[in-house]
Write a structure and sequence with these properties.
Number of helices: 1
Order of helices and strands: HEEEEEEEEEEE
Radius of gyration: 25 Å
Oligomer: single chain
Largest sheet: 11 strands, mixed
Amino acid sequence: MIRQKTFVPLLLAALVAAALWGVLPAGAQGPTLPHAFWGMVEIAGQPAPVGTQVEGRGTNVLTGIPYNPLITTKAGQYGGPGGLDPRLLVQGEIPDGTPLQFYVNGILAECAEPDGAWSGSFAYKAGAVTILNLRAQAGVRIYLPLVLTHFAAGSLVR
């Protein structure tokens, strides 16, 4: 009886493994695992406010999907260290080592691991979870004067 109880789960596991093995053609790879990020985020030297948008971009990176971009829920921090905390997920058909850029509210940010040097990009690593701090300059708004001129019908401008 004990042998039969052990045999059935092993047989089922072997059948499932064999079925999954046949799903992908020879030489094909499964989907690439995402690279997850969380850390501190600041704008113009100040903690970014709640509602700040953080986005990862790069060659073949999927954007406009759940968790990329990620909206901050705590001032000065995007994502979190806990197992249930959301994290910025950079995913797509991305080879390891691909440079990633990070944007804070649409502005290109610098990034650094804790106690590391600031850089304009960070290398993608499938399946990794990285603490990466981000800093962006304040957005620049340009105001141009609007000059409206009104001419009456039939008037001449000299």
